[in-house]
Amino acid sequence: MSDDFDSLTVLLKLLMPSLSIEDQFELLSCLNAGQTEAVIAEAKQQGVSLPLYPMLLALEKTYDLMIPSKEKLYQAYLSTAAKNMVALHEAERLLSTLKEAGIAAAGLKGIYLLENVYGNIGARSMNDIDILVKKQDLAKSIQIMQTLGYQHTGYFSLLDHNTDTKHVPPMQKAGGHLLEVHWTLLEECEPFTIDVEALWARMVPAKIAGVETLALGVEDLILHLCLHLTYQHFLTLGLRGLLDIGLVLHQFADEINWSRLVETARSWGAEKVTTLTLKLVESQLEVPIPAEVFTSLLPAGIAPELLENARSLLFERGQTLANLTPDLVEMSASRNLITKVKIGLQRVFIPRLALARIYNLEPNSLKIHGFYWVRLVDLFRSYGSTILNLQQEDEATESARQKAQLSYSLHEWMSPRPEC
Known about the structure:
There is one protein chain. This protein folds into four domains: 7-67; 69-216, Beta Polymerase, domain 2, CATH 3.30.460; 219-318; 326-414, no CATH class. The chain starts with 6 loop residues before the first helix and ends in a 6-residue tail after the last helix. The chain has 19 helices and seven strands. By secondary structure, the protein is mainly α. A three-stranded mixed beta sheet has the order 1-2-5, with helices on one face. A two-stranded antiparallel sheet has the order 3-4.
């Protein structure tokens, strides 16, 4: 391995879905112990040490390759596997009960990917269980969840104008995983137009947690993962989110109808998001994408600088942008005191329904007015130090602010119309 060794470059090569075990061994056998440790550390930083562990274990068994930090990797893998077993047990009961009640349900994101793409119970972590049901089945679905012991963690009513949310507030039972019951993939007021009826028409059979149920059609799955990583999460999911997409593209390569994917992306208004994400998958994990897909989606192409900015945001895991929200970036950029105060007040005095969801209150309750003061205190606790640092304009904070501004500019570029 040359002197210009870069742990991220090696890790990306190692995680290429098409790489054979022989090529994996050839790549790792060229590294010294320190370099291998650096690759493992990079994997942990990028959130992909879990899928890396079974790969390294197979190399150890086949080629007697030594694995640095093996015990730490094993413990993390074992812990994740145990948590996922609990999640799958919960999912089996949930999906079975919904099926018995005649309610169609589809597994989304991790609960589907774990078994159907990763195929290894400890190779991918899950924060919650995501399922999709039809909007007309929401009331009955919620009742079923409640009979199974799940309770809302926030206020929710089907009578409200719920266009600013895509799922029921997370539900949970004692000792269980968070459960998110979706009726659509994106908030209805987001700048994309997803035809949910067409989505259901393209559903495919799938087995999840031993239950014969449904999953998104492969093209819809790819588009959903692209939106989830690049638009909804501002690329902050890092390499793990990119690997999800790369593995789906590799596993279902012979089944993907690229013309349908392009047509659906256009109907959603997701041409830029899709093009950018697939370009990242192709360039970083070397997953082949037909050239005509890019020219059909975005004839003008993507500027190299924009693609590099997106790559930088994707992999810069050491710097968090969580406390640098769009309004704080706008506030820091303004020199006008009145503008700063206005932005601050807008952040405190949010609509009643939004406040009710945060603090699990009835929107028409008289005591909700007092929770604006609670929100002010909570915001100060969460963002007070960030605001002070922004005012001081120290080098580290300014660098983070510029990255946040870049992230939100990229987000705006992807939006086909103003967002909610």
